[in-house]
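Appendix B. Raw example, untouched.
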Amino acid sequence: MELQVSTIDGKKSGSLKVSDEVFGLEPRADILHRMVRYQLAKRQQGSHATKGRSEISLTGAKFGNQKGGGRARHGSRRSNIFVGGGKAHGPVQHSHAIGLPKKVRALALRLAISSKVKSGDLIVIKDGKVKDAKTKSLQAGFTKLGLGSALVIDGAEVEVNLKLAAKNIPQVDVLPVQGINVYDILRRDKLVLTTSAIEILEARFQ
Protein backbone atom coordinates (compact mmCIF):
# COMPACT_ATOMS: atom_id res chain seq x y z
CA MET A 1 0.00 0.00 0.00
CA GLU A 2 1.23 3.50 -0.83
CA LEU A 3 0.35 6.64 1.09
CA GLN A 4 0.79 10.22 -0.06
CA VAL A 5 3.31 12.25 1.95
CA SER A 6 2.96 15.97 2.60
CA THR A 7 5.05 18.56 4.40
CA ILE A 8 3.75 20.16 7.55
CA ASP A 9 3.01 23.25 5.43
CA GLY A 10 0.57 21.30 3.28
CA LYS A 11 2.81 20.77 0.23
CA LYS A 12 3.13 17.40 -1.52
CA SER A 13 6.30 15.45 -0.79
CA GLY A 14 6.02 12.18 -2.70
CA SER A 15 4.68 8.85 -1.47
CA LEU A 16 5.59 6.12 1.01
CA LYS A 17 5.06 2.37 0.80
CA VAL A 18 3.62 0.94 4.03
CA SER A 19 2.77 -2.49 5.36
CA ASP A 20 -0.73 -3.85 4.83
CA GLU A 21 -0.40 -5.67 8.17
CA VAL A 22 -0.46 -2.32 9.97
CA PHE A 23 -2.35 -0.01 7.60
CA GLY A 24 -4.52 -2.29 5.49
CA LEU A 25 -6.58 -4.34 7.95
CA GLU A 26 -10.37 -4.50 7.83
CA PRO A 27 -11.65 -2.54 10.90
CA ARG A 28 -13.46 -4.49 13.61
CA ALA A 29 -15.71 -2.51 15.93
CA ASP A 30 -15.80 -5.27 18.56
CA ILE A 31 -12.02 -5.24 19.11
CA LEU A 32 -11.89 -1.43 19.15
CA HIS A 33 -14.74 -1.31 21.66
CA ARG A 34 -12.97 -3.76 23.97
CA MET A 35 -9.78 -1.72 23.80
CA VAL A 36 -11.49 1.60 24.56
CA ARG A 37 -13.24 0.00 27.56
CA TYR A 38 -9.89 -1.37 28.71
CA GLN A 39 -8.20 2.04 28.49
CA LEU A 40 -10.97 4.01 30.19
CA ALA A 41 -11.37 1.46 32.99
CA LYS A 42 -7.63 1.36 33.64
CA ARG A 43 -7.31 5.11 34.06
CA GLN A 44 -10.05 5.32 36.70
CA GLN A 45 -8.49 6.13 40.06
CA GLY A 46 -10.69 3.91 42.20
CA SER A 47 -9.77 6.06 45.20
CA HIS A 48 -13.34 6.41 46.52
CA ALA A 49 -13.52 5.11 50.08
CA THR A 50 -15.27 5.60 53.42
CA LYS A 51 -14.22 4.48 56.89
CA GLY A 52 -15.79 1.42 58.46
CA ARG A 53 -16.36 1.17 62.20
CA SER A 54 -13.01 -0.56 62.69
CA GLU A 55 -11.22 2.52 61.27
CA ILE A 56 -12.98 5.12 63.43
CA SER A 57 -11.09 6.48 66.44
CA LEU A 58 -13.86 6.68 69.05
CA THR A 59 -14.38 4.96 72.37
CA GLY A 60 -15.35 1.34 72.47
CA ALA A 61 -16.34 1.52 76.09
CA LYS A 62 -19.96 1.37 77.12
CA PHE A 63 -21.47 4.82 77.59
CA GLY A 64 -24.53 5.71 79.65
CA ASN A 65 -26.15 3.82 82.45
CA GLN A 66 -27.43 0.28 82.17
CA LYS A 67 -30.86 1.42 83.31
CA GLY A 68 -32.75 4.66 83.68
CA GLY A 69 -31.16 6.53 80.82
CA GLY A 70 -33.99 6.03 78.37
CA ARG A 71 -31.61 4.68 75.74
CA ALA A 72 -30.52 1.31 74.44
CA ARG A 73 -27.49 -0.35 76.03
CA HIS A 74 -24.89 0.66 73.43
CA GLY A 75 -21.30 -0.42 73.84
CA SER A 76 -19.51 1.61 71.14
CA ARG A 77 -19.57 5.09 69.67
CA ARG A 78 -18.08 3.70 66.41
CA SER A 79 -21.38 2.17 65.34
CA ASN A 80 -22.79 3.37 62.02
CA ILE A 81 -25.98 4.64 63.69
CA PHE A 82 -24.12 7.44 65.49
CA VAL A 83 -22.87 10.74 64.10
CA GLY A 84 -19.16 10.31 63.41
CA GLY A 85 -19.44 6.55 63.39
CA GLY A 86 -18.32 4.18 60.66
CA LYS A 87 -20.09 3.77 57.33
CA ALA A 88 -21.89 0.46 56.83
CA HIS A 89 -21.06 -1.26 53.50
CA GLY A 90 -19.39 1.89 52.12
CA PRO A 91 -17.17 2.03 49.02
CA VAL A 92 -13.57 0.87 49.34
CA GLN A 93 -10.47 1.58 47.25
CA HIS A 94 -10.07 -0.82 44.37
CA SER A 95 -8.82 -1.00 40.82
CA HIS A 96 -11.34 -0.73 37.98
CA ALA A 97 -8.87 -2.23 35.48
CA ILE A 98 -10.02 -5.14 33.36
CA GLY A 99 -7.84 -7.71 31.65
CA LEU A 100 -7.14 -7.75 27.92
CA PRO A 101 -4.51 -9.97 26.24
CA LYS A 102 -1.44 -8.25 24.85
CA LYS A 103 -2.09 -9.64 21.36
CA VAL A 104 -5.60 -8.14 21.35
CA ARG A 105 -4.24 -4.76 22.42
CA ALA A 106 -1.65 -4.83 19.64
CA LEU A 107 -4.32 -5.84 17.12
CA ALA A 108 -6.62 -3.05 18.31
CA LEU A 109 -3.93 -0.43 17.65
CA ARG A 110 -3.38 -1.71 14.10
CA LEU A 111 -7.14 -1.79 13.52
CA ALA A 112 -7.51 1.80 14.75
CA ILE A 113 -4.78 2.98 12.36
CA SER A 114 -6.29 0.98 9.50
CA SER A 115 -9.73 2.47 10.20
CA LYS A 116 -8.28 5.95 9.66
CA VAL A 117 -6.71 4.83 6.39
CA LYS A 118 -9.98 3.34 5.15
CA SER A 119 -11.99 6.46 6.03
CA GLY A 120 -9.41 8.75 4.41
CA ASP A 121 -8.55 10.40 7.72
CA LEU A 122 -4.85 9.44 7.86
CA ILE A 123 -2.35 12.10 6.84
CA VAL A 124 1.37 11.38 6.50
CA ILE A 125 3.83 14.26 6.87
CA LYS A 126 7.53 14.14 6.12
CA ASP A 127 8.57 15.30 9.58
CA GLY A 128 7.44 17.46 12.48
CA LYS A 129 10.02 20.19 12.03
CA VAL A 130 8.73 23.77 12.12
CA LYS A 131 10.83 26.92 11.81
CA ASP A 132 9.62 28.52 15.02
CA ALA A 133 7.23 27.85 17.85
CA LYS A 134 4.50 30.09 16.44
CA THR A 135 0.94 28.84 16.81
CA LYS A 136 -0.31 31.07 14.00
CA SER A 137 2.08 29.67 11.37
CA LEU A 138 1.43 26.07 12.46
CA GLN A 139 -2.32 26.67 12.36
CA ALA A 140 -1.99 27.94 8.78
CA GLY A 141 -0.23 24.71 7.78
CA PHE A 142 -2.86 22.62 9.53
CA THR A 143 -5.58 24.49 7.67
CA LYS A 144 -3.95 23.59 4.34
CA LEU A 145 -3.85 19.94 5.45
CA GLY A 146 -7.52 20.13 6.42
CA LEU A 147 -6.88 19.52 10.11
CA GLY A 148 -9.35 20.59 12.75
CA SER A 149 -9.56 17.82 15.31
CA ALA A 150 -6.34 15.80 15.02
CA LEU A 151 -3.87 13.54 16.78
CA VAL A 152 -0.30 14.18 15.64
CA ILE A 153 2.22 11.39 16.22
CA ASP A 154 5.90 12.26 15.84
CA GLY A 155 8.96 10.01 16.15
CA ALA A 156 10.71 8.82 19.32
CA GLU A 157 10.74 12.43 20.54
CA VAL A 158 8.38 15.26 19.60
CA GLU A 159 9.99 18.26 17.92
CA VAL A 160 10.17 21.01 20.55
CA ASN A 161 8.82 23.79 18.31
CA LEU A 162 5.96 21.57 17.13
CA LYS A 163 4.99 20.72 20.70
CA LEU A 164 5.07 24.36 21.80
CA ALA A 165 3.25 25.69 18.74
CA ALA A 166 0.45 23.11 19.02
CA LYS A 167 -0.23 23.67 22.72
CA ASN A 168 -2.73 26.47 22.11
CA ILE A 169 -4.55 24.84 19.20
CA PRO A 170 -7.83 23.34 20.44
CA GLN A 171 -8.63 19.68 19.67
CA VAL A 172 -5.06 18.96 18.57
CA ASP A 173 -2.91 16.50 20.53
CA VAL A 174 0.78 15.90 19.87
CA LEU A 175 2.41 12.69 21.15
CA PRO A 176 5.61 10.73 20.59
CA VAL A 177 5.14 7.40 18.85
CA GLN A 178 5.42 5.56 22.18
CA GLY A 179 2.27 7.33 23.35
CA ILE A 180 0.04 6.31 20.44
CA ASN A 181 -3.14 4.64 21.67
CA VAL A 182 -6.53 3.53 20.39
CA TYR A 183 -8.68 5.92 22.44
CA ASP A 184 -6.84 9.07 21.32
CA ILE A 185 -6.85 7.90 17.69
CA LEU A 186 -10.61 7.35 17.67
CA ARG A 187 -11.59 10.49 19.57
CA ARG A 188 -9.93 12.78 17.00
CA ASP A 189 -11.17 13.17 13.41
CA LYS A 190 -7.72 12.95 11.80
CA LEU A 191 -4.58 10.95 12.51
CA VAL A 192 -1.29 12.55 11.45
CA LEU A 193 1.84 10.39 11.34
CA THR A 194 5.37 11.47 10.52
CA THR A 195 7.47 9.16 8.34
CA SER A 196 9.71 8.38 11.32
CA ALA A 197 6.63 7.38 13.36
CA ILE A 198 5.57 5.01 10.58
CA GLU A 199 9.02 3.39 10.50
CA ILE A 200 8.93 2.79 14.26
CA LEU A 201 5.37 1.42 14.13
CA GLU A 202 6.19 -1.00 11.33
CA ALA A 203 9.28 -2.22 13.16
CA ARG A 204 7.21 -2.66 16.30
CA PHE A 205 4.64 -4.91 14.61
CA GLN A 206 7.05 -7.04 12.57
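End of appendix B.
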